[in-house]
Specification:
The protein is mainly α and 84 residues long. 74% of the residues lie in helices and 0% in strands. The protein has a domain at 20-72. The longest helix has 21 residues, at 8-28.
């Protein structure tokens, strides 16, 4: 049995709104990073350079918005080991 292709409108709606879900999934399941990269690359190849630039802009804004958190976490002193 062959699967029917998705309606182009549904596919566009999915690719236009998938990035927040990808970020959430990465927060909850970091091991999915490679699968999500595959998904994003497939969507970028399908949708072209304008979509790629849009996605990369969103990623840059997300990461730069969290930069103070990253810096704070990296600045923490390592825990001390109390060995007996």
């Amino acid at each position: 049995m062959e699967a029917e292709p998705l309606d182009p409108k549904e596919l566009h709606a999915f690719t236009d709104s998938m990035l927040p879900g990808c970020f959430h999934l990465l927060d909850e399941l970091p091991d999915t990073v490679y699968r999500l990269c595959d998904l994003l690359m497939t969507a970028i190849k399908r949708s072209g350079p304008e979509y790629r630039d849009l996605i990369l802009g969103q990623v840059v804004r997300q990461v730069s918005g969290l930069m103070p958190v990253y810096i704070a976490v990296c600045s923490l002193e390592p825990p001390t080991c109390v060995c007996s």
